[in-house]
Amino acid sequence: MASDEASRDEASRDDASRDEASHDEASLLRLLRAVLECDTANFRPGQLEAMTAVMRGRDCLSLLPTGAGKSLVYVLPAMLRAERNAPGVTVVVTPLLSLLADQLRRCDEMGVDAEAWSGATDPTRLERIERDLRAAAADDEGPTLTLLFTTPESLQTPRLRAALRVASDNGHVAALAVDEAHCVSQWGHDFRPAYLALKDDRDELLGGAPIQALTATATRATEASIAAALGLRRDHVVARSSLNRANLGHEVVRRECLGDGGGDGEERAAVDHVVAVSRAAKATAPESAGIVYARERGECERVAELLATAGMDVEVFHAGRSKESLRRALANWAGGDIDAVVATVAFGMGIDKPDVRWVAHWGPPTSLEGLYQESGRAGRDGKPSRCVLYADAGELDKIRKLDPGRAEKVDAYVRGTSCRRAALLSHFDEGAGGGARACDENDVPCDACADVGAVKRMNAAADRKSDRDAERKLDEMRAAAEAAAEEAMRGGGRESAAREPVAKLAAAKPAAAPPTGPRRIPAFRPPTRRAAAAGASADVAAKRKFVCPMKKSADDPAKRR
Ligand SMILES: [Zn+2]
Question: Does pLDDT of 13 surpass 70?
Fold first, then answer.
């Protein structure tokens, strides 16, 4: 009898929590439609799961691609709490100060009471935040603030920590949202050590509030390391949405195929290519502006100058520029007053300009994660957009020196002839991979799906060209080494002086080709000391009609010592 009663109680508790859950879901959907001003809007895959997990007090790792409404995942529950007069602030950690202003503006538009705490925040606003967080020890009403944005470094500010400690002691911290959570992972491509403190802060500062970790991209290894580094609880939920962006068309341009004569010719042709991409975009979307990513500050300046000379209206954005210049660049770009911004990869993180019609990488990125994330800043409005990656063999060699493991994947992507979309998705363990076509069901095909023949021709031409370049370079070095050896010997010079150019030549032997790479030139075997001193190999000697004086003096005892 008693056990019947107990199971009836349990069943009614289950019913009650089901009712509560469906009530929450209905309320969240109502808020979503109000925010998007669309009566038929619905949640994207993973969004609702991520919101309800944290509302039930569970940790959640959300893997939602750019444009899938990542921020709504913490904004909507905060709005719901405010609507129900439930106290509690969600602390949102974002990596960049430049994101804070943008986030606040969007919250303001949605009618959410949000503030940002950073070194750039006005002192009177800091006071308001502090007062608000410390409110309600007595009257239980709690803070009116629903979202508090900050950076991981600003979260270490003693004044903010003291106020947050009061709020959490009063039970007024609802959640800790960690945006761009891949920054916590040493496997991630944007590792930020300050993120590592968040794990302890959740328990010691924020009263064990649930963590909502958000990222657009993570391989399985990154996903596991985010969970470990943030100390997500064992029962944490992983809310995942497909990373596919149907409206993005990925293309690769092998620079070697552009222009004649290599060097400047190639570069000028690449500039013309960017100009054409930009003009085509402006013709259909005058308000739009593109992004050109370069790897370093100096490169940004140089590329911007090249594009400006070719008639494009561009701004430069990187950390070496003054605040005023950055503000102007951002405003002009956001307003579509210019053609493009030339920037390092930090630009665009969290900036929500929906109509970016094209993104170009001036050189290969250091990882496919980076490529996905940066090119994902195009087409957030869902309209067709281009993602163009320019690369040549020399640049691929350069990134290989930075991180061989990641560069190998970028190399395979650049030299590949199969679907780019499939290649990117399979990197994140999604889709069939292995050369399958993934573009058929999407709005915009990649270059390989659009015309695989053209991609194959481009690769063959680029490989022939880079082989020729490498052979020419080796010929030049061989000749220089021989000439130096001859010079040293003729002048009765040191034997070591004769060896120097030969040693340099040995060091310059071509880098090992990637496993997926095209045919490669045979590895160059540096001449032995003896052969070098003797005028190198017979064929070279014959070609150059050169007889080394060492040959005559090989038996000279003075030279043997
Ligand atoms: Zn494709």
Answer: no
